[in-house]
Amino acid sequence: MKRQRFENTFFSLLELFSGMVNSMEVTVEMGKHVMGRDCFSRFSYEFDQTFQRVRRKYSGGDFRNECKEAFSTFYDSRQSNVDHYFRTLYHIVRFVDSSEVEDKSVYINFLKAQLSSLELKLLFYNCLGEMGSTKFKTLIQKHGLLDNLRKEILIDHDHLKLL
Questions:
Q1: Which of 18, 30, 75, 98 is 20 to 30 A from 134 (CA-CA)?
Q2: Chain-centre distance of CA 41, in angstroms?
Q3: Around Cβ 130, how many Cβ atoms within 10 Å?
Q4: Considering only CA atoms, which of 157, 158, 112 is closest in space to residue 17?
């Protein structure tokens, strides 16, 4: 009975998460709109641009601070678009982690299957920023949420060493 209750809640949360992603809408240049999962292409582009501006301020490969500042700057500019995304994702992972269900990896794998490459990229950099570096990073590492992250998608392959 507990497992059935857990699964009902978990799959409802996944449905909520999927609906949230599908309902995302971002206005880009000249009033053009990007919707759904396509928003993450725009977010990734904006993060890359922000990172390049921040990188110019640092010398000597201070990757951790570059990443932290770049993600913080990006997050501040897109908070209304991404804040609820990261909070919802965090709560789903925390829900699974704190449950009494035995094989948590089955449910985490369902969640991982929902995440695109660009979502994983932003999740990675979120873990290096102030917001995600404490509680969320620990859960992400514990459950291998970034196992499918391709290093080619990162701004710099050396960033993998930071996590």
A1: 18
A2: 13
A3: 12
A4: 112
Give dist(CA 86, CA 102) in Å, integer: 25
pLDDT at 107 over 70: yes
For the record, the structure tokens of 55 come out as: 């990188």
Dist. CA 102–CA 52, nearest whole Å = 44
- Residue position matching structure tokens 């299957």: 113
Segment 36-65 mean pLDDT = 88
Is the pLDDT reported for residue 61 higher than 80?
no
| CA gap 12, 157 in Å, rounded | 36
Q: Does position 60 have pLDDT exceeding 70, yes or no?
A: no
Nearest 10 degrees: Cα torsion 105, 132, 160, 154: 100
Q: Would you give the DSSP letter of residue 30? A: G
Q: Write the single-letter amino acid at 120.
A: L
Residues β-bridged to residue 25: 35
The full DSSP string for 137-156 is HHHHHHHTTTTT--GGGSS-
Q: The pTM is what? A: 0.90
Place of tokens 């000249």: 30
What residues does each domain of the chain span?
2-23+35-162
Phi–psi pair at 55, nearest 5 degrees: -60, -35
Under a CB-based contact definition with an 8 Å cutoff, are residues 140 and 127 in contact?
yes
